[in-house]
Structures are given as C-alpha cells and as structure tokens.
Amino acid sequence: MTGIRSFRSPPRWSEAPAAGPGSNGHEPGRAAERPGRGFFFLVVLGQAALFGLSGLFGGLYDFSAWGGVALVSCVLLVALVLTQRFALTPQAALALTGVAIIVVWSALSMTWAESLDQAWNEVNRFGFYGITLALVVGAVRTPRHAAAVMGVLTAGMAVTVLYTVGAMLLGDGGSMFKDFRLEDPLGYVNGMAGLALMAFWPFVALAEAARTPLVRGAALGFAVLAADLVVLTQSRAAVPAVAASALLMLVLLPGRTTRGWALLVAAAGVAASLPVVLDVYGEFSEQAAFPSDSTVRSAAAAALVAAIVAGAVWAIASSVASRVSRPSLRRVSVGALVAIALVGAGVAVASIDDPVGRVKSEYDAFVSLHVDEDRATRFSTGGGFRYDLWRIAADQFADSPLRGVGAGNYDTTYYRERRNPQPAPQPHSLEMQLLGELGIVGVLGLLLLVGGVLWGASRASRRLDGWVVVGATGVFLAWLAHTSVDWLHNIAGLTGIALVAAGVVLTSPEPSGERPRSAGWRRATLPLIVVVALLAVLAAAEGRRWAADYYLARSGSELSSDAAAALRDADQALDLDPESLPTHYAAARAYARLGRYEAARATLLQATRKEPSDYVPWVLLGDLDVRHGNLARARADYRRATTLSPYDTDFSVSRSRQTLRGD
Hints:
This protein has 663 residues and is mainly α. It is built from 25 helices and 2 strands.
C-alpha cells in the first residue's frame, strides 16, 4: 500500500485548469474520469453506508460480519491499484505507511507470539482497516466525491440515532439498557457512546456550514440527540473523549467562533433535558435488570423536545447572523463566547466543595480500582478497572519494549497478573494495546497514521467544503479520543466510520486537463508488484479465516442434533485454522457428545500446548473429567487453571457438579 506513488506530485484542487476554449470540456475542479473510476467511487459510497449503519448491526464486531467485507474489499483494492491512477499526497502516504507498519509488524510478531491465532486475527483486522483507508483515498478524487461520501456516512449515523430514539420512545425501551446504561442497538455500552459521539461532529459541522437556516437547525437538533445518547450510556470513557475532541476541534480548524456557539447551544439543549434523561440511571437497582419503559420513554421525549427547541433557536440565530457581517459585531460575538465559557467553568469549579481534594479522591479511586455505582451519574466518578488493565500493558512493554508480547496476545499475561474480576482480551486503550503487544514499532505506526490524518485535515480546507473537513476530522478525533480509553478499534464498523472519514481528508485530486491513460501492467514497478503480492496474501488469509469461521459456526449449530456432522465441520475448521482454540473446544464438545472421552481430552490437551498461558482449556478439562467421574484428575486440572488465573477461585469439582445439576 505504501509504495504506490504517482511519478509526479498531484496538483491542488485550485490548480486544475478551468473549462473553456481549448480545454477538454471538463468542469472546473473536476477530475478527468477514467474507465472504472465511477465504479470504485460507488464501492466507497457503499462502504460509507455500511459503516454508517453498522450500529444497527452490532457494529460488525464479529469476524463473521466483517470477514467477508474484508475479503471483497481486498480484491477491489487490487483491481483499483492495477486499473486506476493511484496518486497519493504526502499526508496519505504517511497515514497508509503507519497502517502498513502495524500490519507488517503484527504479521512478524507471529514468530514470537504465544497465540498465533490471535496474532493472525489482528493481522486480518488491521489489514482490513488499511484496505478501507486505501480504497477511500484511491477512489475519492473530487470535492463532490468527498461531500457525497461524508453525506452518506452522516446519513447512516443519523438513521441510527433516529432509530435509537424512536425505539426508546415507541418500543420496549427498557430492554435496550444493560445495568441501566444504553446498550442497544449496537450491543455494547461504550460502543454506543463512541458511535453517538462520532455522529455528533458531522451534525455540528452541518449546523455550522449548511446553506439554509432550516438545515442548520435540523443538524443542531441531531447533535443534541446524539449527545443525549452519550449521556444515556453513562460511559466514563466518553468524558475524556468529549473533552479532547471538543478542544482539538476548536483549536485545529478554522470557523472556531461559529463552532463554539453551535457547541454552546447544543450543550444548553442537553442541559435542559438532563433532569429527565438522568432519571434512567437514577432508577438503578440491583433488584431490576433494566429501567422501566415509561422512564426511558420520558427520557427520549425530553431529548427530542430539547433537540427541537435547540434546533429552532440555532436556525433563527444563524439566520439573523447571516445578515450581519460587521467586524465589530464578530469581535463582540467572540468576547461573549469566551466570557460564557469562563463563567461556566467558574460555576462548575465553585459547585465542588473541595476541587483539589475531589481530584485527589477520584485519582485514588482510579488507582485502587474502586467502583461506586451508588450515584445518579457515573460521569463524576474516577473508579473502575482501567488502571489495572493499563498497568499490565505497561509491564508487557517494559519486558519487551521493541517487540511486545505479540499482536492480540495481551491476555497471555493479563489473567495471571490481574487484580480485578473483569475478563479483558485487550487493555481498553489503542495506545496501551499497541505498546504492550507491538512495542515501540506499533506505536510508531499509530503516530504516523494520526499525524498523516491531522496533516491532511489541516490542508483539506483548501480543496474541500468546510462542513466536510470539520465533520470528517471530528469523526476521526472522536474515535481516536474514545478508543484511547476503550476498545472501539476492535469494533470494525465504528473504526470503519473513522477511517472513511480519515480517507476523505487524505484524498488527492487528479488533473482535470489530463486525458485518461490506461494503467495496466505497463506501469508495473517493484513497489506495485510488492503491494499487489501483499494484498493477495492478505486476501487469501482473510478468505481462509472466513471459511474456518463458517465451519466453526456450523459445527456449533449442529452439535445438539448431529454430533457426527458437528465433528466433521470442526475438523474442517481445524484444517483451515489449526491454531484456533475455539475450534479445538468445538471438536472436544463433539467428541464428548459422541461419548469419545479420551479423544475429547486429547483435543483439549492439544489446546493447552497451543497456548500454555490460557486457563480456559484446563477449566474445560476439569469439567470433562467431572462428567466422567475422574475427580482426582479434575482437581488437578482446576488447580492448573487457578495457577494461570489466580484471581478466579471458583474452579472446583463442586462448582462443576452444580452446573451439571443445573443449580
């Protein structure tokens, strides 16, 4: 991916010659169309729609959901590289180099990682992300293309926001919550918060720059709805993400005054709805699984009314402001905005009895892993388990600062070293995960990616519509800030949203006066051959993994009705992916169902040799031995499991017997 460069630097949009006598008849600023270019642009539009709507489909979290998309995308990228002129700006080259470093180093880490299966899964995942970014960069060639892609992406997220609010208002809203925190439709609380925050910024961008007051007001209303969804998730990870993305968006891009006022009106709308919205979490009770439908309905109605009122206020205000262009009034506007922000900050600080003491107590709660759910909101607490998760990643980095433990292998030491009850295959931070798993090289790749995107965003306003730049940059920064304290990077749909947005600001123009030229193998160079070969290997890996997952899923569905067929499918999956522990478990279950105890045990023992640090195979061995009456062997298995996961103390024969009885 990183070796594909045009033989000359592409001109800026403003350098494209205008149509007129002697020109080729193209519209000013419009790239010359090449055969097939429109097809690849439609592909990217489809990607934008898929990712924008992914919150309605579990965020495409499972490999079964994104593996097929990755395979098709890989094939399409090869076709794009071979048939189209693929010019990269320095910013795009930098960002794609960063992703390529992560992918290649993840693949190399298979030579030292304990879990080859988990390392290969990360290669597939980050490979898919790089392919997605490259497709957008290669196919989006004009400002119209960029606006269309961002429009489709924003529309998809708007549909998700409307569906969520509508389901709470008209359906069984209480069932959408887990522990009184909004979880559905995505299925993960922090993921819902990240999705809503990413959606917030394109809405703010449209509220800032749309052509008509009506559209600006409607966009501001959507921003209020998205922000209220963030509140309903009660995600502590959203707090630093909101603060960091807002600060960066006010610092990095022009249009700060209008954006500041838009944020202020949106914040006022959210504040007005808070007394009712917070009632949802205020109902928290250990005796109930989720809030009542009526409370959720009231919260959704309050959010909707606040959105309508805030949108109307913004539409009127922006209409009046568009008629006034005196510099003196603009200075007054800036001064008023700064004064309101300072007063608000002062009131917030004054409302805390002992600000310094409060910060100290929350820090103590953070490092002591204290969890306090007895509050009307989780946003004001610093407790949780992230300190422990990050501590272990830091230890992994300290032990191997260059290589790390290997891609996807964070949990090979986590369960042995943890001091909290949370199962966690990743440290809930992209930066900490890369530090622990891939060392300095992995973090370098991330820095290049982020640096390239921010560099591209700083220059994109010269060639793209203002709302496109603001919206795309806001989406990427919201994702980056949120995944820095969570694991949105492992949710393919949400990361896809961020990378499509990043690709938009990294696009490069084609000269409008240049006649289309055939691409083909005549311009094959060593970098091109290397990139195509790597993409072919990645496509084969994606396809092999997808096929293995298909047989694994089929084995699970057949187990209760036809154990022999389940075993055949599990064996087929093992042939395709012999390093997969879940596939070993599926084969062992099938053997056990067929009464082949020794074969089941041998399969689980093989799993223990594949990943010696994983405690799960030993727990399954203990359960299997209890079922067959070999209690002495079961106790030895459970002792081994407890050694690998000392925090867990409930691995025992009595527990297994209770499970068998259904107690």
